[in-house]
Amino acid sequence: MTTAYWELAVAVSPDATEPVTNFLWELGALGVVEEETPGASPRLRAFFPAHADAAGLETRLRAYGDALGALGLPAPGPPSVGPLADPDWAAAWRDHFRPLPVGRRLVIAPPWDAPTFAGRLTVVIEPGRAFGTGHHGTTAGCLEALEALVDDGVPVHAIDLGTGSGILAVAAACLGVGRVVAVDEDPDAVAAATANAARNGVADRVRCAVGDAGGLDVAPAPLVLANLLSAAHARLAPRYAEYVAPRGALVLGGILDSEAAGVAGELARHGFVPRAARSLDGWTTLQLTRGR
Ligand code: SAH
Question: For the chain, what percent of residues have pLDDT higher than 90?
Fold first, then answer.
């Protein structure tokens, strides 16, 4: 039997899913999915083309695991590589991404299965290398906060720092925000965000650019979204105070529940007042206002 595709499966600890996922893409994966089972380690499944060197993939992943271990991160479990039982990896990949209702008004859907739900806006996001399919608690938390803020009055302008797939910027535009500036330091993410904005018909309102979240030269916005990590929020807090217009809103994601109080404290030192916090899958999304 000739192998159409290889599947590599590996158990990883939650802290290591992001670096290991990136590494799998770098090894040439056609698709990577993360499967979460309550009470068990997440499992990554990556699909590789037939010409990939299956034994080499396994060796390189083991070496990468050792390197992570040396950095103090939990090393992944032993990888298993085998011919894909389901010969159609695309079907296996697609199966993983079903339309996902988020909050009260949104559905995040892949391009091949984008239904219309009564009373909900469908935001089409192509799952790819860039982070942000809506399935992760950090993204879903930011989308819920965005939706709640828009319910209180649609901001005319927003900034999305670390846009990834562009999901937050595109959702903001779909919810009526007039102009969104979306930046990411990763050019692949910016390409994905640009394509996703076009896919949703909001390319004229979402401007995507490669850039560092700390180095923007923009007019202050009534809404700033940043789904980064706690350490980045602490570092960027003085910049947030410049990016968010007085009485404007700041939505911060990527904060472990145990870090939320510390991040809120750091932001308070820069004039931000916490308004709401939501926790999803161990991740907190903070919603703050600049000034009282
Ligand atoms: N906004 C998306 C993606 C979040 S993942 C969502 O909510 O799902 C975080 C993204 O931020 C990644 O794409 C990463 O490349 C980008 N990023 C991390 N640090 C950054 C920085 N300092 N400047 C710009 N982008 C950054």
Answer: 67
